[in-house]
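pasting for the record
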Amino acid sequence: MPNSAPEKIDQFRQKLKNDWTGGETVSAWRKWHAEIASFTRGVTEALLRDAQLRPGLSVLDLASGVGDPALSIAPAVAPSGRVVATDLGPDMISLAAELARNLGLSNIEFREANAESLPFPDSSFDRVTCRFGAMFFPDLQKALHESLRVLKPGGRLCFAAWGKREQPFFSATHSVLARFVEIPKPDPDAPDASRFAERGRLQRELETAGFQNVNENLLIVPARWNGSLELYFQQFSEVSVMARPLLAKLSPARRDDVRAEILASLQKFVQDGHLVLPLEIILASADRS
C-alpha cells in the first residue's frame, strides 16, 4: 500500500482491531474454533511442512487468533523448542491460551502484539509463521521488515494466504449474500482477503523487504466440514466479520432466502455426505540471509 497516507493506514489498523477483537467475533470463535480448526487442518499442515520444523526451534506465529497454527507448531518443536503466539487483542489470545492449557502444551507463550511493531529483540526466532493473517496487515512492508528483523540469520518465514476470491469458499457464501444485500464498496487501498491473488505479488513483497530464496506456490487444499450444511451456514453467519452485520440488516424472511440459496450453493460440493471445499491458497517461504 505504498500510496496510502499514514492516517489512512491508521484507519485500517483501527478497523482491523475492531473487526477481529470485538466481543461478537471472539464469542463466535470460541463457539466454533474446533470445527474451523478441523476444516482448515490441511492448510495448517501445508504451512508446517513448508516451515521445516524440528525439535529445538524457536517460532514466532503472527496473527494467531485462537491458536492456528501455533497450537500445532508447539508439539513439532517440543520438548526444547518454543512458540510465541501473537494477536492484536487480549481476548483472542486468552482464548488461545485456554486451549493450550487444555491440550497440556507447556512450550507456548501468548503475547498481545502488532505485526508492524513486534516487542522482541533482533534475531530472536528461527521461524516466523502466519496463517491467513498477512493479507490484512495495514502496512505490509513494515510488518515484513519486522519479521525479517526478529528472525535469526538463516531463519525462515512461512506465510499462508488466500488465493483468488473467485473460489468456492467465497462464492458459495459471500457472493450469494451479495445478491441479497448491497455490500459496501471496499477501499481499493484497504487490505483484504484476496490481496495476494495476483500470482507473484507476495513473492515481490517479500523480496522488496529484503528476504532471500523467496518461493511462492499456489495450492488447492481440500477442506472437509464434519457437520451438516445447516451448521456450516450457522458458523458462517456468526464468524464472518463481513457477513454478520449484513445478515443482521435483513428481515427474517429475507435471511431465510439467503440461507436457502447458500445451502443450495454448498450442496454442489457435498461428497459422500460431507461438505468438501477446495481451498485455493498461496504458500510463501523465504529466508533471512
